[in-house]
């Protein structure tokens, strides 16, 4: 029981963590997962289709999280999705104080993050050697 001067802790109010807070925490956990990248084009930012995209639905003490992510090449998409899933289940409850009942993860894009390689066309070197 709590301090008698304060009274019963159950009468002091309630604690609410809004879905947007859970989404922000989840996004940070997802982006900290190896192989995940933030991906968006100008049109994606306008339409709200940038990745990762997180949706949280809470009902009472039940929380369901859906993640749509972009994976950096050459990481195996299934391995990255499993890592996202596992990290959300372990870290989000710790950081928000709310249990997570279900996590769905989908990889939408695999993005090549390596710098582009310069192609040398046949005959390109020949032009430079004729001076």
From TrEMBL:
Pfam family, one: Asp23
Protein name: Asp23/Gls24 family envelope stress response protein
InterPro entries attached to this UniProt entry: Asp23
Family: Belongs to the asp23 family.
Taxonomic source organism: Hoyosella rhizosphaerae
């Amino acid at each position: 029981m709590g301090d008698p001067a304060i009274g019963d802790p159950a009468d002091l109010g309630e604690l609410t963590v809004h879905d947007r807070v859970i989404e922000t925490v989840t996004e940070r956990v997802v982006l900290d997962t190896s192989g995940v990248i933030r991906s968006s084009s100008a049109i994606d930012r306008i339409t709200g289709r940038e990745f990762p995209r997180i949706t949280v639905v809470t009902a009472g003490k039940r929380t369901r999280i859906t993640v749509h992510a972009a994976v950096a090449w050459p990481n195996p998409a299934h391995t990255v999705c499993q890592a996202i899933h596992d990290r959300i289940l372990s870290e989000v409850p710790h950081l928000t104080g709310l249990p997570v009942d279900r996590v769905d993860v989908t990889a939408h894009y695999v993005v090549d993050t390596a710098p582009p390689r310069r192609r040398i066309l046949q005959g390109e070197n020949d032009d430079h050697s004729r001076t």
